[in-house]
Amino acid sequence: MRRGASSPATIVALVALFVALSGTTYAVTQVPSRSIDSRQLKKGAVRTENIADGAVTAAKLSRGLSARIARSTARLRADTSYADRAGYADNAGHADRAALADRATTAGTADSAATAGSAVTAGTAADASQLGGHDASFYLPRSVIVEVPRFSLGSDETRVILEHGPFTITARCFINKPSGDDADVQISTTEPHSAFEGFTANPDLNPGDPESARALIGVDGATGVPEFESSAAGSAVAPSGSEIRSIILYTGLNLFGRPGRCTFGGFFIL
């Protein structure tokens, strides 16, 4: 045999070694399909990043595992729903508090209204006998005010507008007379030595005195022409004590676009 040549045994040994080594290398780098199961996997060997999106579906999971996932999902949803409801409950709590606050406000308002009503009533009750700090005697009683609502008369018509003690007060109307139109108010007395002041003043008014001595107020003018007169100064007293303390009257001719009418009104304070 030539120097450096290998014997057949050596060649076989080398081939066997090469095949052995090649087989091992092939087993490491080329894993046969479906040759690995859960027994060959270390715990935690498969991570999220090792699984493609959509690779694991419910159909690929064992029945027990699918049921556990379903229960976990249900619990998660229940927890989420509870959390949401908790939030709503919190809001509801706010709503309840708002409603309570509103009711409290309403109740407060009602209380205030009741209190205010009571206060007003109490104030009125406390001041029932007073007005502006004065008792009733400070003011004129309603019974001493005699109103004369506005009225009108035609030509030659008269109307008694007040009878008080010895005094009688009468309104008169004269239209289209030789002197024109005239309206006046006259006073008369049944008690001698009475006194009055009005359109004229008579410190000694007696029964039967002429009209010129008894005029309280009067107005005259051309026929059909509007005229108006008012007086806030007048009073009458009698020796027996009867008084008309204030005479406030007005009279007019042909007013309000109504020619041929006399108009009167005012009031007396007795």
SSE diagram, text form:
Elements: H1 8-29, H2 63-126, E1 130-131, E2 134-135, E3 145-153, E4 158-164, E5 167-177, E6 180-189, E7 194-197, E8 201-205, E9 215-221, E10 227-231, E11 235-237, E12 243-244, E13 246-253, E14 262-269
Antiparallel strand pairs: 1-2, 3-14, 4-5, 5-6, 6-9, 7-8, 7-11, 10-13, 11-12, 13-14
Description:
This protein is α+β, with helices and mostly antiparallel strands and 270 residues long. The chain has a domain at 142-269. Helix content is 32%, strand content 31%. It has a 4-stranded antiparallel sheet with strand order 3-14-13-10, with no helix packed on it. A 4-stranded antiparallel sheet has the order 4-5-6-9, with no helix packed on it.
Give a short overview.
With 270 residues, the protein is an alpha+beta fold. 32% of the residues lie in helices and 31% in strands.
Number of strands: 14
| Gap between N and C termini | 174 Å
Number of continuous helical runs: 2
Determine Rg (CA atoms, Å): 61 Å
Order of helices and strands: HHEEEEEEEEEEEEEE
Give the averaged pLDDT, no decimals. 74
Low-pLDDT regions: 24-28
Structural class based on helices, strands and sheet pairing: alpha+beta
Global morphology: rod-shaped
Oligomer: single chain
The neighbouring-strand order within the major sheet is 3-14-13-10
Please report which band the strand proportion falls in: under 5%, 5-15%, 15-25%, 25-35%, 35-45% or over 45%: 25-35%
Helix content: 25-40%
Biggest sheet architecture: 4 strands, antiparallel
